[in-house]
C-alpha cells in the first residue's frame, strides 16, 4: 500500500491542480478548459484526480465490479484464411504461424477435407465467417466437424455472422431474422465450445455510429436474441453459453478500453435482470472477440499501420478481450508475410511485454473511470429509449437519421 505521507507533503487537492491550470493557460474559469466531443457527445476535462472518482455514482474504481477481472489475463491469438481465394500453400503456412485460432472465410464451395488437409481442429479454435449462403456454409462446416471430431466438445470457436446486423442493410423482416437465429442456435447448441450466436458490434462502428450508440444497438440485438430464443423455450443459461461479441477496435485509446470494460459490466447487469437477480449460477462474463483494422489504413505508409495495429491490440487486451484478431497492415490479404507480422504483434505483447501477467494494468485510472461511468450512464439511458420505441428495429433508423443530420 502506498504511504501518501512518505515524502512529508500532503497530496495536492483538485483545486490546486485547477489553480495551476488556470495560471498556466490564462483562462478565467475552469469551464473554459473543458472540451466537448461533438461526435462522441462526451465532455472532457483536462485532467482527473482521485476526488473525481468519489463523485462517480457507479463506483467502478473497484475492479471487482467488472466480471472476470483476474490477476492474469490470457487471450487467444487468431489469424485468417480465405478458402475461396488462398492457395493450399498459403493455408498451410498460416496454420504454422504460432497462433491459437483461425478465422476461416468460406463461401461453402468445395470440400473442406481438400481445402483444409493439414488442419487438426482439436488443436485450434475455428471461427467460421460465411461468405455465401449462411445455412449451407454452416451446415457443411458442422458436417465436416462431426467427421473430424466425434466428441462435440472439442470443436471450439464460433460463427462470425450476425443475422440482425445483416438485416440492417439487407432489409430482412424481423420474422425472417428470428427464424435464422433460432436455426443457428439449434444447430450449434450441441457444440458447447462452438458459439453460433454472434453479436456484431463492429457493424455499427463501420456505419459511423459513436461508441455509446454502438453499445446501445449491440446490446439491443442481445435483448432481441434472448427474447426470441426464450420465447421458443430455450433456457437463458443455454443462450448465454452460445453467444459472443464481435467487436472492432477504434482509434481513441482510453475510450476503446472503457468500451470493452463497460460492455462487460452491462452484459452482466442485463443477464441479471433476465434471471431476476438470481444470476443463475454466478456472474455472466460474455466472450469478446476483438479485431483491429476498423480505422482506415493508409497503404502508402504500412509502417504506421503496424504501429496502429499494435496500439489497437493493446486497447483490446487492456479492455479484457478473450480473442484477438490483428488484421494485416496492408491491403494484400493473400500474402503470408503481413499475416505473420500481425500474428507476431499479439505474440510479442504476450511473450515479451508480458501483458498476460499484468492483470488489470488500467485499474485506478481516474480518466478511464470517468469514461466508463459516462458510457454506462449514456447506454442505460439509450437502452430505455430503445425499449420505448419498440427495440432494435425502432432504434436503428432513429439513431441513423440523427447521425446523418449531425453530419450535414
Automatic annotation (TrEMBL):
Task: Please give the SUPFAM superfamilies that the UniProt record associates with this protein.
Answer: Cobalamin (vitamin B12)-dependent enzymes (SSF51703)
Q: What Pfam families does the record point to?
A: MM_CoA_mutase (PF01642)
Cross-referenced InterPro entries:
Cbl-dep_enz_cat, MeMalonylCoA_mutase_a/b_cat
Tell me where in this chain the Methylmalonyl-CoA mutase alpha/beta chain catalytic domain is found: 112-393
Please name the GO terms that the record assigns under molecular function.
Answer: cobalamin binding; intramolecular transferase activity
Protein name stated in the entry: Methylmalonyl-CoA mutase, N-terminal domain/subunit
Q: Which organism is it from?
A: Echinicola vietnamensis (strain DSM 17526 / LMG 23754 / KMM 6221)
Amino acid at each position: 500500500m502506498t504511504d501518501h505521507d512518505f515524502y512529508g507533503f500532503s497530496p495536492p487537492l483538485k483545486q490546486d491542480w485547477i489553480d495551476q491550470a488556470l495560471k498556466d493557460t490564462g483562462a478565467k474559469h475552469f469551464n473554459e478548459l473543458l472540451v466537448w466531443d461533438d461526435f462522441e457527445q462526451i465532455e472532457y476535462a483536462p485532467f482527473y484526480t482521485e476526488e473525481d472518482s468519489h463523485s462517480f455514482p457507479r463506483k467502478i474504481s473497484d475492479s471487482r465490479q467488472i466480471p472476470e477481472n483476474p490477476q492474469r489475463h490470457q487471450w487467444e491469438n487468431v489469424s485468417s484464411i480465405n478458402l475461396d481465394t488462398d492457395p493450399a500453400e498459403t493455408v498451410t503456412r498460416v496454420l504454422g504461424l504460432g497462433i491459437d485460432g483461425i478465422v476461416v472465410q468460406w463461401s461453402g464451395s468445395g470440400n473442406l477435407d481438400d481445402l483444409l488437409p493439414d488442419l487438426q481442429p482439436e488443436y485450434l479454435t475455428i471461427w467460421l465467417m460465411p461468405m455465401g449462403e449462411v445455412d449451407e456454409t454452416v451446415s457443411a462446416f458442422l458436417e465436416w466437424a462431426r467427421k473430424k471430431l466425434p466428441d462435440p466438445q472439442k470443436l471450439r470457436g464460433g460463427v462470425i455472422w450476425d443475422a440482425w446486423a445483416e438485416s440492417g442493410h439487407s432489409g430482412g423482416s424481423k420474422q425472417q431474422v428470428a427464424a435464422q437465429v433460432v436455426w443457428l442456435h439449434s444447430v450449434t447448441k450441441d457444440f458447447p465450445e462452438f458459439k453460433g450466436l454472434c453479436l456484431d458490434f463492429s457493424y455499427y462502428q463501420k456505419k459511423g455510429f459513436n461508441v455509446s450508440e454502438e453499445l446501445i444497438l449491440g446490446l439491443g440485438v442481445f435483448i432481441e436474441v434472448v427474447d426470441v430464443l426464450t420465447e421458443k423455450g430455450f433456457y437463458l443459461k443455454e443462450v448465454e453459453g452460445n453467444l459472443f461479441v464481435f467487436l472492432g477496435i477504434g482509434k481513441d485509446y482510453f475510450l476503446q478500453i472503457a468500451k470493452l470494460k463497460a460492455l462487460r459490466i452491462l452484459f452482466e447487469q442485463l443477464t441479471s435482470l433476465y434471471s431476476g437477480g438470481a444470476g443463475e449460477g454466478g456472474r455472466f462474463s460474455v466472450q469478446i472477440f476483438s479485431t483491429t483494422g476498423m480505422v482506415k489504413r493508409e497503404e502508402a505508409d504500412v509502417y504506421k499501420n503496424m504501429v496502429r495495429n499494435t496500439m489497437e491490440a493493446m486497447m483490446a487486451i487492456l479492455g479484457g478481450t478473450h480473442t484477438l484478431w490483428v488484421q494485416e497492415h496492408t491491403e494484400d490479404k493473400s500474402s503470408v508475410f503481413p499475416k505473420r507480422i500481425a500474428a507476431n504483434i499479439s505474440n510479442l505483447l504476450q511473450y515479451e511485454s508480458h501483458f498476460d501477467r499484468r492483470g488489470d494494468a488500467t485499474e485506478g485510472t481516474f480518466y478511464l473511470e470517468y469514461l466508463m461511468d459516462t458510457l454506462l450512464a449514456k447506454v442505460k439511458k439509450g437502452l430505455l429509449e430503445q425499449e420505448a420505441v419498440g427495440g432494435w428495429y425502432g432504434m436503428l433508423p432513429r439513431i441513423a437519421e440523427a447521425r446523418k443530420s449531425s453530419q450535414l
